[in-house]
Amino acid sequence: MYLIVGLGNPEEEYSNTRHNMGFDVINKLAKKYNINITKNKFKGLYGTGIIENQKVILLKPQTYMNLSGDSIIEVMNYFNIDISELIVIYDDMDIEKGTMKIRKNGGPGSHNGMKSVIENIQTTNFNRIRIGIGRPEKNYDKINYVIGKISKEEKDILECGIDKAAEAIPEIIKIGIDRAMNKFN
Length: 185
Description:
The protein is of the alpha/beta class. Helix content is 41%, strand content 22%. The protein is built from seven helices and seven strands, in the order βααβββαββαβααα. A seven-stranded mixed beta sheet has the order 2-3-4-1-5-7-6, sandwiched between helices. The two termini are 25 Å apart. The model has no long low-confidence stretch (mean pLDDT 95).
């Protein structure tokens, strides 16, 4: 069983922000595979379904970004999810807008949500998809950049990365992380 997690902040207030790219991918997958993300447990919203003949859990932690790992570890423990079947999707300022990168491991960089995930699951060796949001202009506050509302024009660019990530998830499940990295990176 795969646990596919999108990092973000509660959507009422934080929808249409760069920091919610992970939630946007989860929403796209939920729609495509007819998975209702309505269960409220484990400090998150989740739903179960099937992608590429594999049972999956789609999770949107509701802890706010900086405590995302609290929700993930609860789901992993409850459903006995192996670390090899965890996929975390999140925004990354070090990647160009409209692109995405798949990785099997690595540190959190400056991403507080990923710091929380690593702290809770006690490893950096897990699958992740980083969605590029680009860097703010000089002297622009990074926090306001990631949680600030985005324009329609920028949303269209960012949507390319969201779409690519939503395409990559079933491929990771079907052909494995290494082959998916070769195909999408």
